[in-house]
Design goal:
The protein is 83% helix and 0% strand. It is mostly helical and 162 residues long. Helix 3 (40-73) runs antiparallel to helix 4 (76-97) and helix 4 (76-97) packs antiparallel against helix 5 (106-125). The protein is globular and about 50 Å long. The two termini are 31 Å apart.
Length: 162
């Protein structure tokens, strides 16, 4: 049966852009739930999910996708802007993770993080953005997708063990 599972996974390999976009959609859904929630406990849970997902997402992009993008396109400006946007998000994530959901500014920080991520996602996904340029390049998006999925699994397992 394990052989069948392996075949199934490789037969349905997701390219890097599709995997990263799926991460974007998941976090957007959690941000929307956060915005609608009135429960402090639920907000804390959602913020924790959002922050954990974004930590993993930024790490796999920075370790695997961004270097491959830079190598394939030589677009330093787009690469550098994405890294700087990640730096700002990571700083805010660290602040949110150090807070309690009832603290002053907790909701505001999650809201600002949401706005930062929406901007970043728009830039990556728009025509002429990083994802479109990656698809036009000679990047092996299937192989990168496998690398991203594998590393994402490692990071998530580490988070669960911590």
């Amino acid at each position: 049966m394990a052989g069948k599972i392996r075949k199934s996974r490789s037969a349905h390999a997701v390219d890097a852009v599709a995997l990263l976009k799926a991460d974007h959609r998941q976090v957007e859904a959690w941000f929307a739930q956060f915005e609608k929630s009135r429960s402090t406990a639920r907000k804390r849970q959602l913020a924790a999910q959002i922050c954990a997902a974004l930590r993993v997402h930024t790490e796999i992009e920075e370790e695997i996708f961004y270097p491959a993008f830079l190598s394939a396109t030589a677009d330093k400006a787009m690469h550098h802007e994405a890294v700087v946007e990640h730096d700002g998000a990571k700083e805010l994530i660290a602040q949110i993770e150090a807070m309690c959901a009832g603290d002053d500014y907790f909701d505001a920080k999650v809201t600002v993080l949401s706005e930062m991520i929406k901007h970043h996602v728009k830039e990556e996904e728009q025509p002429g953005g990083m994802f479109a340029e990656a698809k036009k390049s000679k990047m092996d998006l299937k192989a990168l997708g496998d690398q991203l999925r594998s590393r994402k699994g490692e990071l998530q397992a580490h988070d669960r063990a911590a």
